[in-house]
Design a protein that fits this description.
This protein is mainly alpha-helical. About 60% of the residues lie in helices and about 5% in strands. A hairpin with a 2-residue loop joins β2 and β3.
Amino acid sequence: MHPLIWNTSLCGSLPVKWITMSVVWPRLLTPNNLSQIIRKQKNPPTALRIFNEALERYPSHQHNGPVYATMIGILASSNRIMEMKEVINQMKKDSCECKDNVFATAIQTYARVGLLNEAVSLFKNLSQFNCVNWTVSFNTLLRVMVKESKLEDVHQIFLESCYGWEVKSRVQSLNLLMDVLCQRKRSDLALQVSGDGLSGLLS
């Protein structure tokens, strides 16, 4: 435990804030407070330490989706892959409601560092998270797979996933995939995707 410096100037003898190292902890911690604190940290490991320490200091506090998104974004931008994966797994265990963008961020990060299989695995396991809209992460995965020339695989992912209720804009996904396939001069696969997509939309 770090030494505490009690601030009693605001409310008589009642401690209102305490300071550990460079962190000023409020008496009552809200998710918005925590997001602001960790965003201010210039060092990602320090941000992660604060993220974890908050649960020890405030037993009633629970990380919500925006807090997880902030922490995952910080780790992703600094390519701290193992830590990012651990936080994602923690978010899954907490089963807090989370936005699709956080998975899109992780998918882009995995692809950027050459871990496309991790990106695909994360997307295929989104049903284990409390997330009801997968459209952004789905389209992000399509883009990165085409960029990596995984054209046959992306066709299979499209067929497996685009008709589920979690992907809200099937036409958008279909158009995106056809565009990028045509840019890659794979009009043959684009026509096949178009036929599969239209038959699925009309069925």
